[in-house]
């Protein structure tokens, strides 16, 4: 039904006078609605459903954030956030003798919940996440040399918790220890120019170990407060791939032969405030780009499939994947071995001067 309505709309808009009338009316309305924030609010008040899913998702995500605090989970996002904040304090130049006093007690509370889960239900949470938290906190208490009652109490709480895994060196280290890139800029530029969207694929199965390696590389992308508020839901079962790939309009004409598909999902339950609602798109997109570069280096091609915020499609995807309201689909990525006969768009990019400026302020 939805596809039929889309075809009817496209057919009507292909008629010159109808398209001209539509554009004229649309432009007149938007000239008024776009004049200021008050008129924009009035415009959207007439169509409250345009942003209703996002508003509901943000509210549900914040609710889930608080509900999840203190419960058993594979990853403790509130602990990740605070530990990363401490990491930043450890890396400051000059570093203060006392810092993070306003949230260290809260952090130890989060850490205690994770430690007790790890010992009560081994394997139920990300062990490296917990190890990282331990090592950073240990480095923090060693660095805070000045007397402070809140930090002293937190230190005692940290030391009294059970721990039998030692220190694995996951706290901040000098940049020199990590070394410099062995990849020349010319090589990286060649990779970036080589990677283009491929939509037609050889039907060979895609080895899962190649996908996993690319995902592990994608996970190294920067993410606000190290929350990593996303999930890559990968499908390589032919029937499932076709069901999921059939939903986005942008995959029409080639969705039937995609061998593997990743649905990138943003998790708003990672945030307690609406101010961070866009971070799921930023962070997941950074990871997705690294993921696609890693696929390319392993001989696998990919194509991003746009996912519009369109309620009928959102509802279908939510039902098909069993998503919570707080989980937002960001994009889909088709991947596989390129069909040797396929053509690749040239996709000329904008010139540097069209998107780059230096030291540009208003006026």
TrEMBL record:
<keyword id="KW-0285">Flavoprotein</keyword>
<keyword id="KW-0560">Oxidoreductase</keyword>
<dbReference type="Pfam" id="PF00881">
    <property type="entry name" value="Nitroreductase"/>
</dbReference>
<dbReference type="GO" id="GO:0016491">
    <property type="term" value="F:oxidoreductase activity"/>
</dbReference>
<keyword id="KW-0288">FMN</keyword>
<dbReference type="InterPro" id="IPR000415">
    <property type="entry name" value="Nitroreductase-like"/>
</dbReference>
<dbReference type="InterPro" id="IPR029479">
    <property type="entry name" value="Nitroreductase"/>
</dbReference>
<feature type="domain" description="Nitroreductase">
    <location>
        <begin position="261"/>
        <end position="337"/>
    </location>
</feature>
<dbReference type="InterPro" id="IPR050627">
    <property type="entry name" value="Nitroreductase/BluB"/>
</dbReference>
<protein>
    <submittedName>
        <fullName>Nitroreductase family protein</fullName>
    </submittedName>
</protein>
<feature type="domain" description="Nitroreductase">
    <location>
        <begin position="192"/>
        <end position="246"/>
    </location>
</feature>
């Amino acid at each position: 039904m939805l596809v039929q309505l889309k075809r009817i709309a496209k057919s009507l808009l292909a008629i010159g006078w109808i398209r001209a009338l539509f554009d004229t009316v649309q432009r007149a309305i938007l000239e008024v609605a776009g004049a200021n924030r008050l008129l924009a609010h009035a415009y959207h008040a007439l169509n409250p459903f345009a942003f209703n899913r996002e508003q509901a998702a943000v509210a549900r995500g914040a609710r889930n954030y608080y509900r999840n605090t203190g419960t058993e989970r594979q990853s403790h996002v509130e602990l990740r956030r605070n530990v990363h904040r401490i990491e930043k304090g450890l890396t400051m130049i000059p570093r203060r003798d006392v810092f993070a006093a306003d949230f260290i007690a809260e952090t130890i509370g989060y850490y205690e919940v994770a430690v007790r889960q790890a010992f009560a239900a081994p394997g139920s949470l990300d062990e490296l996440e917990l190890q990282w938290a331990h090592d950073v906190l240990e480095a923090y208490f060693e660095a805070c040399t000045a007397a402070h009652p809140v930090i002293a109490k937190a230190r005692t709480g940290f030391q009294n918790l059970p721990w039998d895994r030692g220190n694995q060196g996951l706290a901040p280290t000098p940049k020199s220890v990590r070394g410099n890139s062995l990849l020349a800029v010319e090589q990286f530029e060649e990779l970036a120019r080589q990677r283009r969207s491929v939509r037609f694929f050889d039907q060979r199965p895609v080895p899962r170990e190649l996908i996993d390696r690319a995902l592990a590389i994608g996970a190294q992308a920067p993410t606000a407060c190290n929350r990593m508020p996303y999930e890559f839901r990968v499908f390589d079962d032919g029937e499932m791939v076709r069901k999921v790939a059939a939903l986005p309009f942008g995959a029409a004409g080639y969705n039937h032969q995609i061998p593997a598909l990743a649905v990138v999902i943003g998790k708003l339950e990672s945030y307690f405030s609406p101010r961070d609602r866009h971070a799921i798109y930023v962070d997941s997109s950074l990871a997705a780009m690294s993921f696609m570069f890693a696929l390319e280096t392993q001989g696998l091609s990919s194509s991003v499939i746009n996912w519009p915020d369109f309620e009928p499609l959102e509802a279908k995807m939510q039902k098909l994947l069993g998503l919570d309201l707080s989980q937002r689909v960001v994009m889909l990525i088709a991947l596989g071995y390129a069909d040797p006969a396929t053509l690749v768009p040239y996709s000329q990019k904008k010139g540097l001067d069209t998107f780059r400026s230096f030291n540009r302020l208003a006026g």
